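job 3f2a | input accepted
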Amino acid sequence: MTREEFEAVAQDVFDGLPPVFGERVDNVAIVVEDYPADDVARSVRASRTTLLGLYQGVPLTQRGQWYGMAPTTPDRISLYQMNIEADSRTEEELRERIREVLLHELGHYFGMSEAQIRRAMRNR
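job 3f2a | predicted structure (124 res):
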């Protein structure tokens, strides 16, 4: 799948998330990369070829009144295309995997811990 096709699928998946996500997500860039950089994978103790996504930024629960008082770079959710594709056999599986990764990383954006996100994902 080309980068443009993957990004279009990711956008379509994001647009299809429950409205609470779209309404509350602010100042977040969702980017697609082939793989995470080596130092990024190491920083989260993951393999460069198995990490599917990563949230980098200041979670909503940690933003004080100071947040946004000066120019603020967007938080970032990275989707690692090659790893997601390697974990998906069909386009439907790819869409579901992108959805799972987006929900997981948005959980971090909303301030959830890894354990809270895993519990929420099991219960959905």
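job 3f2a | The longest helix spans residues 91-109.
job 3f2a | closed
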